[in-house]
Each structure stands twice: as C-alpha cells, then as structure tokens.
Amino acid sequence: MEGDAPHEVEVPRRSADHRKVLETTASDAIPERDAFARLRDLVATLPDEVQRVAALAAVADAQDATRRAEEELQEMLHVASHDLTEPLRMVTSYLKLLERRAGPALDERAREFVFYAVDGADRMKAQLDDLLHYSRVGHGVAAPTVVYLDTLVVEVLRDLGPAIADAGAIVEVDGHLPAVVGDRQQLGQLLQNLVGNAVKFRRPERGNTVRLAATRMADTEAWELTVSDDGIGIDTAQAARIWRVFQRLHSREQYAGNGIGLALCRRIAERHGGRIWVTPADGGGSVFHVCLHDDPVAAGVLSVQERR
Fold first, then answer.
1. pLDDT for 12-24, tens place per residue?
2. For 50-54, 122-126, 254-258, 291-295, which range has the lowest pLDDT when averaged over its residues?
3. What is the DSSP string of 197-216?
C-alpha cells in the first residue's frame, strides 16, 4: 500500500546448479501476515458498523411510527370534534328555542337552568375546537417562511385592539423586532396568546403595561423574544401547570378562557426548534421568554441536506 515502508521477503528460485534456494529481497507488497492483520481489524469493526446502521434504521422506524400516530390522532380528533359538535349544536338550538317559545311560562329558576345548559354546551364546543387546533400544530411547520415580527406584532395588536381598550392596557414595543423563520400563522397565534394573556391577567384596579422586546442570544443563531407585564404574576409553585392542556390557575368567573393558550404556545415554540419559559417580573407580574431562530436548520423546518 502507498506510504508503507519496503520490507524484506524470501523468494524461492533455482541456483546455477538447479538447486532450490531462498533469496532475500526488498518488496513494497503487503506482507501476508500484515494483510491478515488488517483483515482481522476490519472484521472486528463490523459489529460496530452493523449496530450503527441498525440504530439509524430504528430511529427512522420510530419517526415513521410517530408520524403515523400523529396523523391517526389528528384524524380521530377531527372525527370526534365533528361527531360531538353536531349534537352539542342541536342541544343548544333546542334549548334556545325552548327559551323563546316558552319564555313567559318559565320562572326565573328555569331560565337559569337553560342558561347554564347552553353555556356548558358552548364551552364544550370551544374546548373541542381548541383541542383540534392543538393537534394540528403538532404536525410541525407546514409552510416555513421568513417572518418579520415587527409587521406581525402590528397585526396582532390590531386584532387585540378591543380587548386592550376594554382592559385599559398599554402595549409597547421596545426597539426593533427581528425576522425569524417559521410558520407565520402559528407565530401569530403564539404572539396573540402571550399578549392577550398579559392584557387579561391584570389587577382589578388598573390595566397592565405590556412590553415586547427581542435580544440576540449569545453564541447562537437564535433570538429571545420577551413579553412582560406588571399584572398579577404566576405562583412559582404552580408554574409547571400553565403549560398543560386545559389547566387553569384561576376560575372562569375571575378570568375567561379554556386553559389551552400557553400549552399551544409551548407546542408552537418547540415545533420551531425553540422553547418557552416564564420568570417573575421585577416589581410584580411575569416575563414570558421565547427562543426563536432565524436559521432554517436551527429552527427545525429545513434539514441540512435540503439547505444544500
């Protein structure tokens, strides 16, 4: 082999008197014993290579199984949502019809029963819709694009305008917000949930001041987006619950909602290769932090092979 030093070998040949003799000479050929040694080393590495290939195949099989399970779950939730929504709609319609037609004959207690029944059916339908939306986000980023958060925040604040005005809140954007890579609709939902919560969970005597800002995270291709408020804050002992589906820290009488908004935010952040967490704000309130990427590979929406 090229680069190997010549070595001495004994070559049989005939002498002048026709006797067989061994003559020592230099050769660049691989000695037989070295060839066997190399073959032995190669064979020894085969189990490791087989294990590596088997592990890659197992990962691929697991990913396929996960994808199929998610597709089946979404289909099941879609069917369940449709099949359950129709009866709920019928119940609500007949209860409202009963209230209209028999209204004068119903006493105050009966009308209260009708109200609670309709309210319960409406809340169940809203939860089914939220659950279906949550399952759809689980399929990741369908149409990744460059998303300009400055523009997106303007749209979100416009949609939340009535809620912001009713709560007497002030929403400020500190500096310039970056462009990131992801699904524009999902990132809009994330911002709407975070800002909407910051506006909603306020102290009774005043509206919240909500601030949005972004800073480059050190040694990464990521931005840290923060949404801070000076509202009621979150009990640190209960903080882990806020990321779970349909978990609430307050009653519906205190604050409206189904308890799925932050679970959806976490799912969106993770599907974009990032994460989300919350810390107490100085002086009271909360700061929600979201890690988002401006590189498609880091965001998990484009593989290295696809980028090449």
1. 556 666 565 556 5
2. 254-258
3. HHHHS--TTSPPEEEEEEEE
Looking at the DSSP bridge assignments, the partners of residue 162 are none
Strand 275-280, strand 286-293: pairing: antiparallel
Spatial separation of the C-alpha atoms in residues 20 and 24, rounded to whole Å: 13
Phi, psi at residue 25, to the nearest 5°? -145, 160
Q: Which long-range CB contacts under 8 A does 158-163 form with residues at least 24 apart?
A: 159/192, 160/192, 160/195, 160/196, 160/199, 163/196, 163/199, 163/200
Mean pLDDT of the region 178-191: 91
Which uninterrupted H or E stretch holds 14?
Answer: strand 7-14
Q: Which domain holds residue 222?
A: 145-293
Which region holds residue 234: left if phi is over 0, alpha if psi is between -120 and 50, else beta? beta
Q: Is the pLDDT of residue 227 over 80?
A: yes
Please enumerate in sequence order all residues whose Cβ is within 8 A of that of 210, keeping only pairs 6 or more positions apart, or say none: 169, 170, 171, 172, 195, 198, 199, 227, 228, 229
Domain total in the chain:
1
Q: What are 131-159's pLDDT values in tens digits?
A: 776 666 655 556 678 999 999 999 999 99
Q: Which of these, 172, 174, 178, 214, lies nearest to 195 by C-alpha position?
A: 172
How many other CB atoms sit within 10 Å of the CB of residue 85? 16
Structure tokens at 16: 């002048």
The candidate with the shortest Cα–Cα distance to 272, out of 245, 302, 242, is 302
Give the alpha-carbon dihedral of 152, 242, 142, 73, to 10 degrees: -150
- Please check whether residue 162 lies inside any domain of the structure: yes
The CATH number of residue 221's host domain is 3.30.565.10
The reply to whether 8 falls in a domain is: no
- At 96, the amino acid letter reads K
Number of C-beta neighbours around residue 35 at 10 A = 12
In a domain, residue 44? The reply is no
Q: Is residue 299 part of a domain?
A: no
Tokens of 75: 């289909």
